[in-house]
Design a protein that fits this description.
Blueprint lengths: L4 H4 L12 H13 L5 E6 L5 H13 L13 H8 L5 E5 L6 H11 L9 E6 L6 H12 L5 E7 L7 H4 L3 E5 L4 H14 L3 E2 L1 H11 L3 H14 L2 E2 L1 H8 L5 H12 L2 H13 L4 H20 L11 H13 L2 H19 L4 H13 L7 H14 L15 H11 L5 H6 L7 H14 L2 E2 L3 H8 L4 H6 L4 E5 L2 E5 L2 H5 L4 H15 L4 E4 L11 H11 L8
Parallel strand pairs: 1-4, 1-5, 2-3, 3-4, 6-7, 10-11
Antiparallel strand pairs: 8-9, 9-10
Helix pairs in contact: 5-6, 8-9, 9-10, 9-11, 10-11, 12-13, 13-17, 14-15, 14-16, 16-17, 16-18, 22-25
Length: about 550
């Protein structure tokens, strides 16, 4: 009979447990020193190795030839535990044995000495499922068990355990396993099974597993059933990641406020037997991804999707205001709660989509914030800016002059004549410092998207450009043609407005000049030049 991968490759030694050194190292040290507790509590999310470590610990305390805290795996006790023939190791599922009578039976059995092993070990899985009476029945035995009894409790919901139980156990917390550690284990298993695993495909499986190695092995098993060469495409088809076009289509309908299109999409999905609660969950996860992209510098490690879909999500997130994303996310969560309370799922989904497409119909606080943000983006509000007459400093002139490319009149030249030796030097030094301290403005694509609401021509001219921040300046790296459009003060104000909408600050504008490395002068060349100026003939070889 075929054995699934997560059972076939279950660790049999502490060294094989992946991603839990805080547990395995401590247990091995305790076993080496003989400090064996009477009760252990293993907590953590699913598939992280709680039951596996419990079985390894049960073997290690009873092993006839322990090896540095690990069971030998060859003696009759180790082999008996693996094949289930040793009756002194008892594994109980608390989900189906959660009554008082079950615990009383366990207490009576615990009084008998082990038949073959040194310790009688009780592994109680999902211990949080025990009833209140069962916990009370277990409490006294757990506090003062017989010398030959060890309890190992495992749970995914430790907050449901009474404090009296927690205080009587040694607690070990199992963490979610890092994707890199899962990838390493998947690669090893795939090689042993004679298959090939693409690293990107393995990393995608690890992200889908959400820190659970058992889930990763189960998904790998499904992929190997489809193909012996596991690629990203195979993982997408097996996990059902492909075909998310309906999520992007519904998002576009919300952004365009097209209720009719949204209703047609929902009707088509309903005819295809798409569960509306599942659709609501997918949309909620989709808007959660947009929220992460919108608020984080690099949200890629937190989002489980392909690179192509991530790029598409990034484009949607940049073009969508954060209040709108939060409104959609909150509306989906509320609709999901109402669906599970017994409401008609299709009707709830349609009502939610109509409210998202027409936020004026929604009276929630998130909808009001979204509407206010839309008004602020669309209204031509007078922005706070400094008039040109009140900017006599050298920095302001330096900022305006490269953008406008204006030349001072003859009268202005005469007025600045007394300081002609000092002012250009200070200006050059100041601009040089500004250029050196400039840092890249990561929200520049969002600023250009904001600018399209004001002027399509300016936004199109700055496509492919970059921007840098240095103090009170935004330095723009673009072609000369783009700066020509900023000659008019009204157009410059539009650019400042877009920057203020995204960053929340008012900046001065200026060009960004890439710093070029200065070539070191050759002393011999300089000497030759001086000699030629003096009329001395220089012989060049």
């Amino acid at each position: 009979m075929y054995q699934v991968l997560y059972r076939k490759w279950r660790p049999r030694f502490f060294a094989d447990v992946v991603g839990q050194p805080q547990v395995t190292v401590t247990l091995k040290k305790e076993l080496q020193s003989g400090r064996i507790a009477h009760a252990y509590l293993f907590t953590g999310s699913r598939g992280t190795g709680k039951t596996t470590c419990a079985k390894i610990l049960a073997k290690a305390v009873n092993c006839l030839n322990p090896q540095d805290g690990d069971p030998c795996g060859e003696c009759e006790i180790c082999q008996g535990v693996d094949n289930g023939s040793v009756m002194d190791i008892v594994e109980i599922d608390a989900a189906s044995n959660n009554g008082v009578e079950n615990i009383r039976t366990l207490r009576e059995e615990a009084n008998f000495t082990p038949a073959a092993a040194k310790y009688r070990v009780y592994i109680i899985d999902e211990v949080h499922m025990l009833s209140v009476g069962a916990f009370n029945a277990l409490l006294k035995t757990l506090e003062e068990p017989p010398a030959h009894v060890i309890f190992i409790l495992a749970t995914t919901e430790v907050h449901k355990l009474p404090a009296t139980i927690l205080s009587r156990c040694q607690r070990f917390d199992f963490r979610r396993i890092a994707p890199e550690s899962i990838l390493e284990r998947l690669t090893y298993v795939t090689e042993q099974e004679g298959a090939q695993l693409d690293p990107q495909a393995g990393l995608l499986i690890a992200r889908l597993a959400d820190g659970a190695l058992r889930d990763a092995l189960s998904l790998l098993d499904q992929c190997m059933g489809r193909s012996r060469e596991i690629t990203v495409e195979v993982v997408n088809q097996t996990a059902g990641l492909a075909g998310k076009e309906h999520l992007f289509a519904l998002t576009d309908a919300i952004r365009n406020r097209d209720s009719a299109c949204a209703m047609e999409l929902i009707d088509g999905l309903h005819r295809e037997s798409k569960d509306m609660a599942r659709l609501c969950e997918e949309l909620s996860a989709h808007f959660r991804n947009l929220m992460l992209i919108k608020t984080m510098k690099d949200a890629r490690p937190l989002i489980v999707t392909t690179d192509e879909e991530f790029e598409r999500m990034t484009q949607v997130a940049v073009a969508t205001p954060l209040p709108e994303i939060l409104h959609c996310l909150d509306a989906m969560q509320s609709a999901l709660e109402r669906m599970y309370r017994g409401g008609d799922r299709r009707t709830e989904m349609e009502m939610t989509m109509i409210k998202l497409c027409s936020p004026e119909l929604d009276s929630s606080m998130d909808a009001i914030v979204r509407r206010i943000t839309a008004l602020e983006r669309g209204a031509s509000v007078q922005r706070a800016s400094i008039p040109p007459t009140t900017m006599p400093t050298a920095l302001t002139k330096t900022e305006e002059r490269p953008v406008m490319q204006e030349q001072p009149s003859s009268v202005e030249k005469e007025q600045v004549k007394p300081t002609v030796q000092e002012t250009p030097t200070k200006q050059a030094r100041s601009m040089e410092e500004i250029q050196e301290n400039a840092q890249r403005l990561t929200s520049w694509p969002e600023i250009l998207q904001e600018l399209r609401g004001y002027s399509q021509s300016i936004a199109a001219a700055f496509t492919g450009s970059a921007a840098y921040v240095s103090g009170d300046y935004v330095l723009i790296d673009a072609k000369d043609m783009a700066f020509e459009l900023l000659r008019r003060s009204s157009q410059r104000d539009k650019m400042r407005d877009a920057i203020r909408q995204v960053t929340g600050r008012v900046y001065k504008l200026g060009p960004y000049k890439k710093q070029e490395k200065k070539e070191e002068n050759d002393p011999l060349t300089e000497l030759a030049g001086l000699a030629e100026e003096a009329g001395i003939e220089v012989i060049k070889k």
